[in-house]
């Protein structure tokens, strides 16, 4: 065989790949990876195979049987599924009444009906032909009545034509599963009974797969899906099988047209009735469907729960808002009170400070008076003026703390020189700080 | 074939031919310089009706016997091949209604006919085996006359569902006709061989569907063709949709036409009228395979009234719709039965007389992808005449094995030789796409019989270097892509873009856009990894996978044109 060339490249060897002699066995083929089959002993390539396989060996009849048993058989003869007993009444049927016959029953596949595969129909037909062909009956000395054989041929003609088969399946009453009655439903089995009914009804569906009816455990989504599908059911069911025979075109044309019109109307009417029937069936089924009730209740409960939750939340929010408002008011009041207190206390402090300053100033003035203005005997008004002038000047230049400090230093001192030294020191400090000019000082000159 | 054969001629003394012994028609073929040729008999026919007829003790066969179906039906035996090796209760006598009827003689199927001369000669009761012997003898005689050498041996084709009992009966009938049967081969495989033996054919791994559409039955098989060896994967057999069902379509049509003019006279009600009607309808049907119009004319069709009419192909295809569609469904069903999809099928071989019908092949073109070759006269100019395929295949096989001793042939076709494991999954190697995705490159196809060996050459990465050889199993699945639902908005936009003239046209096209189906490979279990080192820039690697009879796998890989490489074995 010619070797193929593949352009799409091989992968590069991954980093770190290593194996003994560069070959890494990973899996293997097992018996399960192969099927024993029979090669056809035909053609030049088979001859080559046979030469290799035989290798001068001789195979026996036993070998043959064993090998044949091993090989998968592609020619199965499976007819066991089409062996229904024949109803003697059915064998008496008149072929001209073929429209009224049950085609599946005639072929012995009534348990399959619309489910019968084309292959089953063909096998069933052949089986019936082998038995009922008039020539065979004649050979067996039986009557040459070929009525039932014609029934068989008609049944096959209908069932092997997909269009005609659908027309028949559309009106095959034997395949119908009536909706369960109230009485049947009273014994439970709601899901099983309806399921069977819808399964049968599903044979008319244009689309597949048809959603299953399910049971009490089905999810809400599945149940909704099911009813959605069926309330929008797209059915191929038709009713021309029940048409009245149209007279041959050789006969009266008007008559022909009349029958055709009548048939068309009848089909339409039956189709509408069928739609209504399905609709009623769905209404009945859904009305009794506990799942729908349960889902509704659950939905209601959920809705209620939501409402209650909402109300509670609203109440809580209201309360919280109120509390917040109250807290705010309280805080405001407290702040106001505190501010008032603060204001009051600061006024007092100021007054206290003022009094302290006054008191301290009195100490300062007193100190110089106590020191008799630093003279012995009566101090001249000029001296008193000069000293008090300096005291005034210092007082004006310092803040209350400095006054207090100065008063602290002065209080208790009785000796004039000591007092004077304190004053001179203070004056010097102020001059150094540039707060007082040397020239302004009259008495406390060093 | 478990029965012992009567000792035949020595290989050197043989003259061997291929025979198709059909239920409706038979053919004989021989090979000249390895080329098969179907032999015309003394009447000039290559399709010889499988019919015998006796008139005044004289035996007629083929086309002449067929003509006697009208005037001498009770002494004419037709459609008997399928009764060989069957008991009376399991035969379908449908097609014998207009000729000698099969009878039950102690369970054996027999026919009672007057085959001797004289008004009051006793009729003979002939078993189906005896009838077959007489017919085969006529075929051999025709071949002998044509070849100018006594034909001693033959390969004969049989349907795939011919039971051992049927095969034994056929061998016995042939031996009684002094014909050595070298081998019975199955019909679909004979057809494949006829195609594969053409000089332009290459040995390829492919899936072939062979539809053998005859007069009374349709048999379809799926054949895995692997390295020139053939394995039948699935078959279906049908007795409803066939050439005679198409005859019936025309019979009913022309009977109604006739009755339009002659109300109350139904030519189908009278055996002789029906025989004439059928004979002419078959001719009209064949004419419709070639031309688009065909004439129909019968002298004294019924009650002495001549009838002539015409029909065109379109009308024929309309009234035959259910039968034509039946063929299509039958072919689809066998593919499904084999667990395959139409996308897996490489070739469809249409074989048998009914396969000349253009509508059948054209319907297949619609269900298969464009990559499937439909081998029928109306779809492929290189197609072999479908009526000749089986005989050609049989003749080719005869020429292949005629030099072997009978015992040797028996041993070579022994079940112990033919029953072998076929791998379920493909075995292949991994390559990487531009986007870095791993893809499976099948090397040995699924359903390949082992031992088997296949080789591929795969490019190394552009830059060369060390490459990884990853051997894995793989299988296919069908990926279905639904067409994008067309939004109304985009449709309007499209019209704006398009030229006014073809806007409508392109719209129509997009409306019946179908879902896209593709066959894609899925990577399965890894079997082994190997390294080929130092591949040069732009180099290629040759990989061989060998599966032994015991399912042990040997892998070898080496750079093309370089020495060395790697080799490893996975024991089963
Ligand atoms: N050219 C043709 N066009 C259509 N049908 C044909 C043609 N040639 C033969 N047939 C039909 O093919 C059938 C016979 O097919 P064949 O393969 O010879 O039969 P069988 O396999 O049954 O022996 C008949 O129904 C015959 O009418
Ligand atoms: Mg055939």
Automatic annotation (TrEMBL), chain A:
GO terms for molecular function: Hsp70 protein binding; ribosome binding. PROSITE patterns: DNAJ_1, DNAJ_2. GO terms for cellular component: cytosol. Residues 76-87 have a biased composition (Acidic residues). GO terms for biological process: 'de novo' cotranslational protein folding; regulation of translational fidelity. It comes from the Eukaryota. Keywords: Chaperone, Cytoplasm. Residues 102-172 form the J domain. Residues 51-87, 248-275, 313-356 are annotated as: Disordered. Residues 255-270 have a biased composition (Basic residues). It is found in: Cytoplasm. Residues 58-75, 313-353 have a biased composition (Basic and acidic residues). This is DnaJ domain-containing protein. It comes from Cercophora scortea.
UniProtKB/TrEMBL annotation, chain B:
One of its GO terms (cellular component) is nucleus. Residues 497-515 have a biased composition (Acidic residues). The keyword NADP does not apply. Keywords: ATP-binding, Nucleotide-binding. Pfam families: HSP70. It comes from the Eukaryota. GO terms for molecular function: ATP binding; ATP-dependent protein folding chaperone. InterPro entries: ATPase_NBD (IPR043129), Hsp_70_fam (IPR013126). SUPFAM superfamilies: Actin-like ATPase domain. Residues 480-518 are annotated as: Disordered. This is HSP70-domain-containing protein.
């Amino acid at each position: 065989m010619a070797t193929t060339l593949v352009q799409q490249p091989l992968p590069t060897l991954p980093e770190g790949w290593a194996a003994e002699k560069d070959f890494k066995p990973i899996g293997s083929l097992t018996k399960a990876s192969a099927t024993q089959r029979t090669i056809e002993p035909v053609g030049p390539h088979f001859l080559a195979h046979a030469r290799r396989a035989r290798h001068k060996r001789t195979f026996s009849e036993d070998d043959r049987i064993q090998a044949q048993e091993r090989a998968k058989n592609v020619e199965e003869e499976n007819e066991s599924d089409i062996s229904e007993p024949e109803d003697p009444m059915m064998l008496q049927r008149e072929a001209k009444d073929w429209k009224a016959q049950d085609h599946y029953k005639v072929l012995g596949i009534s348990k399959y009906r619309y489910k019968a595969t084309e292959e089953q129909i063909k096998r069933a037909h052949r089986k019936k032909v082998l038995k009922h062909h008039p020539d065979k009956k004649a050979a067996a000395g039986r009557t040459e009545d070929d009525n039932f054989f014609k029934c068989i041929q008609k049944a096959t003609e209908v069932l092997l034509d997909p269009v005609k088969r659908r027309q028949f399946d559309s009106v095959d009453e034997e395949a119908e599963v009536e909706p369960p009655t109230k009485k049947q439903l009273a014994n439970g089995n709601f899901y099983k009974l309806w399921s069977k009914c819808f399964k049968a009804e599903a044979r008319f569906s244009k689309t597949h797969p048809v959603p299953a009816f399910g049971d009490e455990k089905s999810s809400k989504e599945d149940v909704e899906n099911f009813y959605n599908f069926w309330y929008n059911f797209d059915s191929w069911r038709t009713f021309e099988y029940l048409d009245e025979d149209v007279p041959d075109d050789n006969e009266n044309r008007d008559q022909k047209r009349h029958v055709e019109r009548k048939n068309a109307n009848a089909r339409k009417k039956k189709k509408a009735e069928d739609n209504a029937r399905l609709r009623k069936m769905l209404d009945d089924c859904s009305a009794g469907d506990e799942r729908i009730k349960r889902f509704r209740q659950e939905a209601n409960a959920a809705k209620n729960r939501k409402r209650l939750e909402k109300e509670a939340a609203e109440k809580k929010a209201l309360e919280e808002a109120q509390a917040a408002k109250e807290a705010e008011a309280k805080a405001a009041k407290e702040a106001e009170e505190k501010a008032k207190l603060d204001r009051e206390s600061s006024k007092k402090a100021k007054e206290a400070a003022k009094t302290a300053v006054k008191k301290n100033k009195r100490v300062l003035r007193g100190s110089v008076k106590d020191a008799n203005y630093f003279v012995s005997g009566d101090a001249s008004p000029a001296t008193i003026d000069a000293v008090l002038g300096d005291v005034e000047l210092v007082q004006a230049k310092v803040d209350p703390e400095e006054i207090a400090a100065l008063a602290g230093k002065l209080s208790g001192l009785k000796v004039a020189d000591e007092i004077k030294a304190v004053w001179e020191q203070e004056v010097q400090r102020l001059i150094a700080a540039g707060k007082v000019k040397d020239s302004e000082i009259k008495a406390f000159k060093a | 074939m478990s029965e012992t054969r009567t000792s035949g001629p020595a290989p050197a003394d043989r003259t061997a031919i291929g025979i198709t012994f059909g239920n409706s028609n038979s053919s004989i073929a021989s090979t000249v310089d390895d080329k098969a040729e179907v032999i015309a008999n003394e009447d000039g026919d290559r399709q010889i009706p499988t019919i015998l007829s006796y008139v005044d003790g004289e035996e007629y066969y083929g086309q002449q016997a067929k003509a006697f179906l009208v005037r001498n039906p009770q002494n004419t035996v037709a459609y008997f091949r399928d009764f060989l090796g069957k008991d009376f209760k399991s035969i379908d006598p449908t097609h014998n209604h207009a000729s000698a009827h099969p009878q039950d003689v102690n369970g054996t199927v027999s026919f009672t006919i007057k085959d001797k001369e004289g008004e009051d000669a006793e009729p003979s009761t002939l078993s189906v085996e005896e009838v077959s012997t007489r017919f085969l003898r006529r075929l051999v005689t025709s071949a002998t006359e044509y070849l100018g050498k006594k034909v001693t041996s033959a390969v004969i084709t049989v349907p795939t569902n011919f039971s051992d009992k049927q095969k034994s009966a056929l061998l016995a009938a042939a031996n009684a006709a002094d014909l050595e049967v070298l081998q019975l081969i199955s019909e679909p495989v004979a057809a494949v061989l006829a195609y594969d033996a053409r000089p332009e054919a290459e040995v390829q791994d492919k899936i072939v569907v062979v539809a053998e559409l005859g007069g009374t039955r349709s048999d379809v098989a799926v054949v895995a063709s692997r390295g020139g060896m053939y394995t039948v994967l699935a078959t279906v057999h049908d007795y409803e949709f066939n050439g005679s069902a198409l005859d019936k379509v025309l019979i009913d049509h022309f009977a109604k036409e006739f009755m339009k003019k002659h109300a109350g006279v139904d030519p189908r009600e009278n055996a002789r009228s029906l025989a004439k009607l059928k004979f002419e309808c078959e001719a009209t049907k064949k004419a419709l395979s070639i031309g688009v119009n065909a004439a129909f004319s019968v002298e004294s069709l019924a009650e002495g009234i001549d009838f002539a009419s015409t029909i065109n192909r379109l009308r024929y295809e309309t009234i035959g719709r259910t039968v034509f569609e039946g063929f299509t469904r039958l072919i689809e069903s066998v593919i499904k039965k084999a667990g395959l999809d139409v996308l897996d099928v490489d070739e469809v071989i249409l074989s048998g007389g009914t396969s000349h019908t253009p509508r059948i092949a054209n319907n297949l073109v619609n269900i298969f992808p464009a990559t499937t070759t439909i081998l029928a006269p109306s779809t492929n100019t290189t197609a072999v005449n479908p009526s000749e395929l089986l005989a050609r295949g049989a003749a080719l096989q005869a020429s292949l094995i005629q030099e072997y001793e009978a015992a040797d042939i028996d041993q070579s076709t022994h079940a112990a030789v033919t029953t072998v494991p076929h791998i379920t999954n493909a075995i292949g190697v991994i390559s990487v796409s531009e986007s870095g995705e791993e893809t499976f490159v099948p090397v040995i196809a699924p359903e390949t019989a082992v031992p088997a060996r296949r080789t591929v050459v795969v490019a190394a990465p552009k830059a060369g270097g060390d490459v990884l050889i990853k051997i894995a199993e793989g299988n296919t699945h069908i990926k279905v892509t639904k067409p994008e639902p067309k939004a109304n908005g985009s449709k309007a936009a499209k019209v704006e873009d398009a030229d006014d003239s073809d806007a409508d046209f392109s719209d129509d096209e997009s409306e019946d856009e179908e879902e896209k189906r593709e066959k894609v490979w899925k990577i399965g279990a890894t079997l082994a990894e190997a390294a080929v080192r130092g591949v040069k820039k732009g180099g290629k690697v040759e990989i061989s996978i060998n599966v032994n009879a015991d399912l042990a796998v040997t892998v070898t890989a080496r750079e093309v044109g370089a020495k060395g490489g790697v080799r490893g074995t996975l024991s089963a």
